[in-house]
Amino acid sequence: MQEETFYSVRMRASMNGSHEDGGKHISGGERLITFDNMKRTVNALLEKGLSHSRGKPDFMQIQFEEVHEPVKKIHPLPMKTNEVESPEEGQSLARFLLERAGVPRKVVEKAYQQISEWSGIRGAVVFDIHTGKRVDQTHDKGVRVSRMDWPDLNFEQWAQRYGVPSNPRIKEALALASKVNEHPATVAELCWSDDPDYITGYVAGKKWGYQRITAMKEYGTEEGCRIFFADGSVNVNTYINDLEKQPILIEWEEDDDSKCDRKK
Fold this sequence. Notes:
6 helices, disordered C terminus, alpha/beta, 12 strands
């Protein structure tokens, strides 16, 4: 029996109106917390939305709701950092890692041909590895993975153990990737940020873990990417519902991550 009650807290911020009215997406955030952490979490999300490098928002929404489903605890993916000299080298490595994760080369190339068309999507695109087509019907909204978190103390212990910077960006990205790749239908994930000041991205998969790549685009570029390469034989609506609704907490233990790289 679960003793604690958890709450899903979500923030989204945009410029020139709300997202539904065509506003430019500025920032977003997801947390899964207990009630006694509510005020601190809301304040942190407020600060995140107001201080993003993509611009000053004129619309922001912060909401929370009680989670009634049982919270599942999973381990974080093992992490490795791949140092590259240029975005071209980074993207070449990303293609290679996607293939190693089980995405056919022709499907990787089909996805890359369409990435520029998806740059304005706020969430993720779901791409079927069998048909080489986008299969979600979320249009410009995309799939928003929600209801996941990594308790701060446990994350800080993990970061100290592996010499990783203890910053929220890494925590949020690795928590999301761990939830997405925990799902049996996920084959791999490809991501880089729409933040113009952040050029690191990653490829994540069950076999090779969370592979950070230090350059995936040029500085100053606001076009980001998030693609979930999935086994399309699974019902896509069930898949999306699991990513959006299943509550997940990341819990690292001392004997986890035997493959984790110590490089920052």
